[in-house]
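Q: For a teaching handout, I want to show students what a protein-ligand complex looks like in token form. Below are the inputs, and the small molecule is zinc ion. Please produce the holo structure.
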Amino acid sequence: MAYRVLARKWRPQTFEDLIGQEFPAVTLRNSIESGKIAHALLFAGPRGTGKTSTARIVAKAINCERKDGGKFPCSTEQCSICEGISEGKSLDVQEIDAASHTGVADVREIIESVKYSPASARKKVYIIDEVHMLSQSAFNALLKIMEEPPEHAIFILATTEAHKVPPTIMSRCQRYDFKKIPVEKIKESLEKITKAEGIKIDTETLYLIARESEGSMRDSLSLLDQLTVSFEDRITHKDVISLLGIPDNESLKSILRAVFAKEPAKCVELVRNAASKGISPRRMAQDIIYMFRNLLYLKICGKDFTSDLSPDEKDELSELVKDESTETVELLFNVIIDGGERIRSSFYPEIVLELALVKMSTVGKVEKIDNILKRLERLSPQASGTGKTPSSPGGQTRTAERRPEKQEDKPAEKESRHVEEKGTGENEKPAKQTPASAAGEQTSGDDPVKQEIVDFVHGKDKFLAKKLAQAHLLEVKGNRVSVKFLKNGINHEKELKKSRELRKILKEMLGVERIRLDIDTINDEEINGTGGASRKPDPAEDEIVNYAIRQFDASVIKRKNLS
Ligand SMILES: [Zn+2]
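A: Here is the structure, written as tokens, with zinc ion included.
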């Protein structure tokens, strides 16, 4: 018997045989069983995902003559119609490759034959593969017949580039999208086929072939065919690597190990070794990128989420990153993606790859923000028992306080406010004023959060900004803004509470839909409670700074008062 290539021999014959295309398979079978199949179908999707095979299965299912009550279509032994279609001998099912029959004459031939009733089957089925390749005039001719198709004809159009099919044709078709077949499913299918064909091959190599075929079952079987021609019935991982000229998993993992062990020289050596074996740096970068993607998935989503790898590979990669933070893996992933981009357009791809790996193996570890915050919390004197809360290093709560006004300051301040308001009102070029000066002298340069809020509000409404600037305390926590005025000081509580404009501006500033605005007045006891009294340098603080310097191996660059 003549040798049949695996892709033809193992071509799916029934809906159950289709791999990774559950949605089109189930929907088509249901519509055929209920007799509601459309007269024109469009199968869109990448190459090798089963579009033409599905079209043949549909042709068989519509015409199948099995009488034992089983599912349509039958397997070839049970009815002559299905057998004829499977072998490409049926007169009623025509397959046209639009890639080589692009002209209007080819479509006219179809139109001519559509008129006649089917020879033996119930319906005539026209399968037009790569339909997007038809010329404009051929599409016009096709449109004519699709507008008023005879009862006995069904058109199945298959394409890898659906966007090139004219909308007039598209709108007359029921569309089915075929997706790339997942690696796991291709591997399962290959396992079944190799077992049946008596080919000895290990799981990891099956995964490799499945990955290489990029979602196309046909490509995976073609590759298997090539391998059996070269290596007969025993195929090893090494055989596949040498046939495809791709980096082997072991060298890739060695590169990853060198990156995490911070050994730049080793990384460069491994790249050079691979290049000397004829492996392209572009391909190597691509594989390292995929490895990092898997590392990140393993780290974030766990082993079940990552389906491109064999269980052993998953274990090995998980082990490799178990001591690394997600942030570190993310950072390295970004570096290699960036390198990969540059490699694509570089004249010196090998050097760019070396450089990217050197960079990856020399960057420091990235620590989780949560961990840093926890360490800072531990540094707090409250935690160590001194009872005083230090200024927040950047938590959720941001506060800004004014120093309490002394009684004797008040008249002068009121006066200055009056003058300031008048001045701003008469000023013809307010844009040239700085927000702080416009908002009034009351805004202390030591209150950065308050200053920020007042500045923002000033950009929208300078009078509101002036009133806010006179608050004793401004605090933002999530979408809650607290404004506190002193009982004995200038108090705008009532006006601000009524101001819809203020709410609107604050919502815009915080970028939130809803805001909680608490405006009230506090007395002197509460000021002491909130620590609003004039702050003196605390000797305990120097201790904290020194401790932080020791913990983080840091040095003081600049001192800034945060409260
Ligand atoms: Zn049949």
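A: Two things your students might notice: The first helix runs from residue 6 to 9. Residues 386-445, 530-537 have pLDDT under 50 and may be disordered.
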